[in-house]
Structures are given as structure tokens and as C-alpha cells.
Amino acid sequence: MKTLPSLLLLVLVGAVGSTLVVSAQQAANDELPRRQYDSGLSFMQGQRYTEALKDFQAVIDSFPRSSVADNALLEIALYQLDVAKNIDATQAAIDKLLKEYPETDSAPMGYVVGGRLAMAKGRTPADVDAALASFERVPRLFPGNDAVPAAGYYAGETLRLVRRTDEALDRYRAVTAQFPSSRWAGQANLAAGYCLVQGERAGAALPEVQRVRQQLPGSAAAADALNINTILYRLYVRAPGQPAYGFTGRFVGDEKSNYDDVVGLVVDPANRLLLGHKNGIAVFDPKGPLKTTVTANEPSAFFVDERGRVIIAKNEMLIADRAESQSISTPLAEPGKTRLVEEIPSVVAMSGGQRIIMDRKAKNLIRVGVDGRYSGTFLSNINGDRLAINTLDDVAVIDRDTKAITIADRDGKLLTKIAAKGAAYQFDEPVDLTFDQIGHLYVLDRGNASVYVFSPKYKLITTFTIQEKSPGAFTRARALTLDAAGRMYVFDERAKRIQVYQ
Fold it and tell me: Which tens digits make up the pLDDT trace of 174-215?
């Protein structure tokens, strides 16, 4: 006869054995969905989005109770928000995640994505409040989770995007103080530096950003910090006592290629340098050699979309590289009637995916969706040429009639104008413009063979010129762009190549 302790021991041993069996069975059952989830991640990293979504959806549909179903759903939500810019699809994925998987490891980041989604819908006080509430739920519901510093960082981003920079600084600094070893601390330091520059406190931004390099050496954030501090040093330490830029002696492109009728110059997020010209888009790798060419006959403009595709404007069309075309039209006064936009000299893409297009014939800037559908007038009565957009979705446009620069916010509300003549400058023939990553505006003036650099509050801070006949002079400049470190690339029709300055 077994004693009571012996019976209890047998029960405990049986229970442990049963648990181990269940755990082993669960691991076996998770093997296929985990492999399929990992396959989706690989496709996503390679930007093969269609295949990635197939894998993630297969996990959700076939293995809804697996340990990676919630992760797959989160990946779909992130794709829809960051790549496809599809608000409805993002909302559907987040709603399903928080309803069906509320206690999983993906739920905290689901609330973070929900907050970001609120800001993607708009910047009204209600949108801001909804976003902040979603971020604030993360530490309340999931204290100690890795998503907590992410929520704090995005709360700061929400406030920064609506120009509440002092409040944003408080949120960023709370992240760096409470989570100094988190990758989000590095992002918060960088964003704090941005806020300080926006407030014309560039001197205070330098040590703020430098801290990232000290605390997170070798990280992507440290590389970003070096780029930002390079820009700050160039504009606020080296200038105005010395020229902010110097010619490197380096050219991109072969002068024998005869790039005629240049329509733009862009450095994309992959650090490719793209030159639009009469016969298409020349794509150079970061070291300068020609990598590939997107063939097109006389494009009028181009941009790189959220999927990394080259989108060409030609007549009334937006044409994706090796993909679909979209006709761009605007409504007429007569119900049901539309007019094709016949000439598109410039296009920029906003962070939410909408495109701002210059309609030269109507002298308007219009807004269209990712699908090419007209959604409204952005800015009226302006004979615009080149456009530029910053991280706040402010749009700058050169007015051909007045030679002034008009800047409007993401809703098309006029922020300011940079007059053609100021206390220390006078535009002669502005032909291109661009923003750096921390909000300075650079204006290329062909007539004066100069680049004028304005602060985020649009005060002139420096002018860059190289004397005619000196190496690197750009007396017939046509296009301008910058890379992440603020290196300047200028296409000059006399040099017939892209000239590099730093």
C-alpha cells in the first residue's frame, strides 16, 4: 500500500510528464508555421512583398493558434502602414490582432502601430489625442515590455509632427533616461536633436546627437548621428567663417553620355543617385558608376515611391518602372467631367503615400492617392516648377513668375514665402531646391551660380558659390540633391556630369 506522500509524488511526476509531452507536441505543431513565418520575413527583407504577404496570411489562416500567428498579423499591419500606405488594411489587421491575440507578445507593439495609424489618418487634435492614448496604454497594460520605449519614442514623434517640439523633447528625454540601452533611446536622441534644430538651437543639438555615437557605437543610429552632426558642423561651425562646402574633385557619370534635358536629381533611401534626363532615369551606385537605366522617352519628372520603385511622369501619366500606369485627371465644374493633367513638371510623395503634383496648365498643386485618384487641390494660383518635401510633409515650390519660394504644410496651408530678394541675397534664376534630413532648405540658383541654405525657420544661414572657371564651378546648373550626410550633388550642363561637394 502506497503512502500519501508517495501517491502525491506519482501525481506530480505524471503532471510534469504530461506537461513535457504537451510542450513537445506544441513545439512540433509550431514547426511548420514558424518556418512559413520565417520565409515571410525573408521575402519582406528582400522587398518581395507579394510573396511575404502570402506566407504571413497562410500562417494566420492555417495555423491561427500557433505561437507565430500574432507575429504574422503584426508584420502585415506594418507592411500596410509603412509600404502600402493602406489605412483601412492596417486598421483591419490591428483590430484583429488586439481582439484575437490580446495577451500575446505582439499585442504591445500592436498598440504602438495603432497610435502610428491614428497619425497617418490626420493631424487634427482628435487624431493626436487618439495616437497619444494608444501609446500610453502600452506601459499601463504591459509594464516592462520591450514595446514601452517604442511607445514613448512614437509619442514624441506624434508631438513633433504637430510642431509641439518642447513637449516632444520631454517624451524623447524620458525614453533616453529610462531606457538608455534600448535602440529606441538612440532614435529619441536623434529626434531630440531635430527638435533643437527646428527651434534654432543647433549648438545644443550637436552634443545631443553625439551622445548616440558614444552610447551605441557601431549601430545604425550612430551612423545617422554622424550624418546629422556632419550637417550641423558644416552649416553652423565651419560656416560662415569658411565656405560650408568644397568641391571634392569627384564626378558621377560620364560626360560622353550627353545627359540632355535633365528633369531632376534624387538620392533615394537606398543611397542610389538617380538622374532624370531626356532618355530616362540613370541610376548610379553610391560610389558613382552607372548601375542601371530606366528607359523612358522625355519624362517631365520622376520620384521614388515607398516601395523603392522609380515612378516617371510623362504627359498626363505616372508610370511605375515595369509596372502599372496611372492617368492623372482633375474634375471640371460640369458634374462628371474631368480634364487630364497634360504637363507634370514635378511630383513629390508624402509620408502617408499621397502624391503632390504640379498641374502647370491650371497653375495648381493637386493631391492624388497612391492609386492615382484625385483627392483635392493642394495649393492654388501658383506657376510652380520644382517641388521639395521635408519630414513634416511641408512642401516647398519655386514660383516661376515671382522667383519666390512658397512653403505650405501637409494640408496645403501657407506657412511662409521666401521672397526673391532678401537682406543678403537675391534670386536670379532658381531652378531646383531640396531639404536635408533636419529641415534646412537648399535653393539652387542657376543665374547666380549659387546655392542658398535656409534654416528650418527659413532664415538665410549661408551661401555657397564657386568662382567661374574654378574647379567645381556650376555656371549652368540644372539639378540639385543631397544625401543623408548632406553631401551636395549638382548636375551642371557645362560639365555634363554630376559634381560632388562636401
Answer: 999 999 989 999 999 999 999 999 999 999 999 999 999 998
Ordered by where they begin, the domains of the chain are 36-238 (1.25.40.10), 247-501 (2.120.10.30)
Q: Please give the backbone phi and psi of residue 52, each rounded to the nearest 5 degrees, phi first.
A: -60, -45
Taken in order 369, 374, 375, 376, is the CA torsion positive or negative? positive
Distance between CA atoms of residues 440 and 449, nearest Å = 19
Q: Quick one: residue 261, left, alpha or beta (phi over 0 = left, psi -120 to 50 = alpha)? A: left
The DSSP secondary structure of 439-474, one letter per residue, reads S-EEEEETTTTEEEEE-TT--EEEEEE--TTSTT--
- At 322 the pLDDT is 65
- Tell me the average pLDDT across 457-481: 96
> Please, what's the largest Cα pairwise distance for the chain?
108
CB 254 within 8 A of CB 497: yes
Based on C-alpha coordinates, what's the Rg of the chain? 26
How far apart CA 169 and CA 164 sit, in angstroms, is: 9
Residue 353: which residues within 8 A CB-CB, separation 6 or more?
84, 85, 306, 369, 370
pLDDT at res. 129: 98
- pLDDT greater than 50 at residue 356: yes
Other residues' Cβ atoms within 10 Å of the Cβ of residue 75: 22
